Amino acid sequence: VIQAVFFGICVLTDLSSLLTRGNDSQEQERQLKKLISLRDWMMAVLAFPVGVFVVTMFWSIYIYDREMVYPKLLDNFIPAWLNHGMHTTVLPFVLIEMRTTHHQYPSRSCGLAAVCTFAVGYILWMCWIHHVTGVWVYPLLEHLSPGVKIIFFAAAVIIINVFYLVGEVLNNYIWDTQK
């Protein structure tokens, strides 16, 4: 969903840019700048770090033991192309976006705070679902003791923050903004 919303905003930004080109309306220019800021924030805080996290974690666990993250039973409901749409194509598309469009990253402290907020919120949401239903969203969590779950969740937050930093460094390298 994050990727779909993000790329929808990218298309909207590009269309708005094309439609306002040559127009002297300051209001349209102001609105376009807001849209570009939203696009850049979403790329920095959500699309890149969450996308890379999903691809690396999903396929790492899948290769180790697919039943822990994507039970074979799901093949009856989710076709292989959709699985790859959710867990594979995210990475090349987000890398293409980074290479073709310069994104202005927020300050490092604000960016990391936003990434942490998202990650902790997602973890709390998973815990809430487990509390209400008695079932973990990801079967892997059923196999972890409470202490190991805490370590796993803390490691996940750290890893997604590292991916935020990797995105920032990669963006700066591609667009050579740190001279």
UniProtKB/TrEMBL annotation:
It comes from the Eukaryota. InterPro entries: ADTRP_AIG1. Pfam families: Far-17a_AIG1. The chain crosses the membrane at residues 41-64, 76-98, 110-138, 150-170. Keywords: Membrane, Transmembrane, Transmembrane helix. It is found in: Endomembrane system. It catalyses: 13-(9Z-hexadecenoyloxy)-octadecanoate + H2O = 13-hydroxy-octadecanoate + (9Z)-hexadecenoate + H(+); 12-hexadecanoyloxy-octadecanoate + H2O = 12-hydroxyoctadecanoate + hexadecanoate + H(+); 9-hexadecanoyloxy-octadecanoate + H2O = 9-hydroxy-octadecanoate + hexadecanoate + H(+); 12-(9Z-octadecenoyloxy)-octadecanoate + H2O = 12-hydroxyoctadecanoate + (9Z)-octadecenoate + H(+). The keyword Translocase does not apply. It is a multi-pass membrane protein. GO terms for cellular component: endomembrane system; membrane. Belongs to the AIG1 family. This is AIG1 protein. It comes from Certhia familiaris. The gene is Aig1.
